[in-house]
Amino acid sequence: MNKENWNPGTLLDVSGYYWKTCALHTGVKLDIFTAIGSNDLSCDEINEKLKVDKRGLSMLLNALAAMELLVKKDESYSNTSPALTFLSKESKKYVGFMILHHHHLMESWHKMDKAIIEGKPTRMRSSFSDEERRESFLMGMFNIGMAIAPDLSKKLDLSGCKRLLDFGGGPGTYAIHFCLANPGLTASVYDLEATRPFAEKTIRQFNVSDRVDFISGNYTEEEFTCPDRFDAAWLSHILHGEGPDQAGDIIGKAVSALKPGSKIFIHDFILNDSKDSPLFPALFSLNMYLGTPNGKSYSETEISNMLTAHGVKNIKRLSFEGPTQSGILSGITS
């Protein structure tokens, strides 16, 4: 938003926007959109499935209709096309897990003043949290990956690559789609042992168990060792969880697993060098401040310097921009 657009109306709109956020989160958490499905249902019919307070449900349904996620006709409610596509669990394009992950982050954002006064996180990292939060985080990563990987896999240059390392790859979404788009490619997903069930379930879902495997380990605390080195590495949304020194170490560990002349790709929320844009990476840096001791969004120059420090050459910014302003840097190992 441009500075000249700020006025009491726009300020109050931003201040109260969390009302819409909470309505969406509650709709997803109660699974209202799945309950409605492709039907036209009354509040009573929806409540037969949900068994919640009818008065509150009626108000929520009306609010979701006002937000144009539901359509209200007479006394019945139906999903809009986007709601049916992205908010019903019956859809392969469901993004509800990421929305639930955002829901779990809200309390820490509410305490941002406390975090800034005390200089420490106000929540535990999602990957080390309880089962519900870890599932929403990992499956949220799957949601985001599914919004990006199928298209990106057709454009990312993996020509000549035979073995890819998805470093900190979570459920393995990118490794899977890179293999689907490149018939000669195999991949290993490297992440915490607690991630294995989610990754292996996803790998089976796409019928690539013969080409994608899982290697357990902690990339922040352990050295990565593998008898056969890789010729491509993909690091997606892992640097921002760490401070500069550890982020650089992570890149070093990935590079050490690659043969000379291999390709390395860094996918993250990349700031410009003044760090005041794009908007989402700037806000995401605050999110990392609230949830980690040293994590943040990095600028293109900062990431480039980390790569250069570990002998990576021919570093360039790809033309790709993700739906939340993520970007990709690529390079070649020496």
Explain the overall architecture.
The chain has two domains: 3-89, Orthogonal Bundle (Arc Repressor Mutant, subunit A); 149-333, 3-Layer(aba) Sandwich (Rossmann fold). The protein contains 14 helices and twelve strands. It has helices spanning 8-15, 18-29, 32-36, 43-50, 54-66, 81-86, 96-110, 112-118, 131-155, 173-181, 196-205, 244-256, 279-291, 300-309; strands at 41-42, 70-73, 76-79, 163-167, 186-191, 212-216, 230-236, 258-268, 270-271, 298-299, 312-317, 327-333. Strands 6-5-4-7-8-12-11 form a seven-stranded mixed β-sheet, with helices on both faces.
Task: Give a quick set of tags describing it.
Rossmann fold; 7-stranded mixed beta sheet; Arc Repressor Mutant, subunit A; 46% helix; 334 residues; globular; single chain; 2 domains; alpha/beta
* Low-pLDDT residue spans: none
Q: What gyration radius follows from the Cα positions, in whole Å? A: 22 Å
The main sheet orders its strands as 6-5-4-7-8-12-11
Q: Report the CATH C-level class of the largest domain.
A: Alpha Beta
CATH architecture heading of the largest domain:
3-Layer(aba) Sandwich
Per DSSP E runs of 2 or more residues, the count of β-strands stands at 12
